[in-house]
Write a structure and sequence with these properties.
This protein is of the alpha+beta class. The chain is elongated, with a radius of gyration of 33 Å.
């Protein structure tokens, strides 16, 4: 027992003097690149709507309006369309059904602004334009982001080089890197009412969207 205790006491100083080697220093950095891109996509929601007491007559009128709208859209190849919701809703007064409202939506989108403006002016003769927005098409957004990725990564490495020189080290190694994108949010325009006169083109101003690519990561200093 005494012999074992003596061996342990002799071993303690050696362990007490051991120091863990310092680990590598790391620095978290972030950089970004952005660009204004011309909007190239306009989307709209038009609605055929009728109110009254005869649901069959209301439905027939809505169907007629929508059929005429679809025929007008098919005549404009630059505009894509898809049918939206169809609703028959009661309108209450004093806790009882007074009338009914029947409606159907049609969603439109196009990269041809003049064609869309002309078509919407025509459709407003009988339909309501309830939603109108302008933004970037997926293709335009992807092209902008691809170009900005290289710029953002270059900005990240430039910032890493600044950190290396400021900390007076010989070099650095990239440990991890995350790339994120944002911007190009669709810009809604004011809701439009039913036109009461002959068709006239709708005023559409494309404008621009700001697309941003952000690069964040960690470097290990050497």
């Amino acid at each position: 027992m005494l012999r074992l205790l003596a061996l342990l006491l002799l071993a303690l100083p050696a362990h007490a003097d051991d120091k863990a080697a310092p680990g590598p220093s790391t620095v978290a950095l972030r950089a970004q690149a952005d660009r204004e891109v011309a909007n190239d996509l306009v989307t709209a929601t038009v609605t055929a709507e009728e109110s009254g007491t005869d649901t069959a007559a209301l439905s027939a009128s809505v169907n007629r309006k929508m059929a005429a709208a679809l025929a007008a859209v098919r005549a404009v190849p630059a505009v894509k369309s898809r049918s939206g919701g169809y609703q028959t809703m009661p309108v209450y007064k004093g806790g009882r059904i007074e009338t009914w409202r029947v409606s159907q939506q049609l969603r439109l989108e196009s990269t041809d602004f003049p064609a869309m403006a002309q078509l919407l002016g025509q459709l407003q003769r009988e339909l309501l334009v309830q939603g109108l927005s302008i933004g970037l098409s997926p293709e335009a957004r992807r092209t902008a982001e691809d170009a900005l990725v290289a710029e953002a990564v270059a900005a990240f490495h430039a910032r890493a080089e600044i950190a290396r020189r400021a900390l007076k080290v010989q070099g650095y190694r990239l440990r991890n890197l995350d790339i994120g994108t944002s911007g190009g949010v669709v810009r809604p325009l004011a809701q439009m009412a039913r036109a009461s006169s002959a068709a006239a083109p709708v005023e559409l101003e494309a404008g621009v969207s700001l697309v941003t690519v952000t690069v964040s990561g960690t470097i290990e200093l050497r």
